[in-house]
């Protein structure tokens, strides 16, 4: 596709590592996709259902600048914890939403009956677990917004 669109592919790193909000080192695999809409770069953690970030640039964008934008977006996404895990005195575990909002992405869950997984903080949450976290907000209004991974 790059040749058809007369795009020169700049050499890019294949992986990079950054620390998350807990100081855990996260390694990301960088993928580049060229199509008539532009250049897409994605950084996906090298584990199943981990963190993933993406950016989009015009066809003749500086690809190194685009990679730097991707790394900055990844760094920002790793710095803030959105869900906190805890344990009740009876030993039952629970998850709670920090700061009354979370950002995640939807993944297919082949082990469910068609309900998705929501990836938050680089961890998979079933639709049921997300619902339980939301129950602490019973009576509140909710605003759900869908947007592409490349959007900020």
Automatic annotation (TrEMBL):
Residue ranges of domain DUF7713 in the record: 83-151
Pfam families in alphabetical order: DUF7686 (PF24735), DUF7713 (PF24828)
Limits of the DUF7686 domain: 12-78
Protein name: Uncharacterized protein
Species this protein is from: Bacillus benzoevorans
């Amino acid at each position: 596709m790059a040749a058809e669109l007369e795009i020169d592919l700049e050499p890019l790193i294949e992986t990079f590592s950054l620390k998350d909000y807990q100081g855990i080192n996260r390694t990301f695999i960088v993928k580049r996709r060229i199509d008539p809409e532009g250049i897409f770069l994605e950084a996906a953690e090298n584990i199943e259902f981990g963190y993933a970030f993406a950016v989009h640039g015009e066809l003749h964008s500086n690809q190194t600048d685009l990679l730097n934008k991707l790394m900055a977006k990844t760094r920002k996404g790793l710095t803030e914890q959105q869900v906190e895990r805890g344990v009740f005195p009876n030993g039952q575990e629970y998850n709670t939403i920090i700061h009354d909002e979370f950002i995640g992405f939807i993944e297919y869950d082949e082990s469910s009956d068609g309900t998705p997984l929501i990836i938050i903080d680089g961890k998979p949450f079933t639709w049921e677990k997300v619902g339980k976290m939301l129950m602490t907000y019973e009576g509140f209004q909710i605003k759900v917004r869908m947007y592409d991974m490349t959007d900020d």
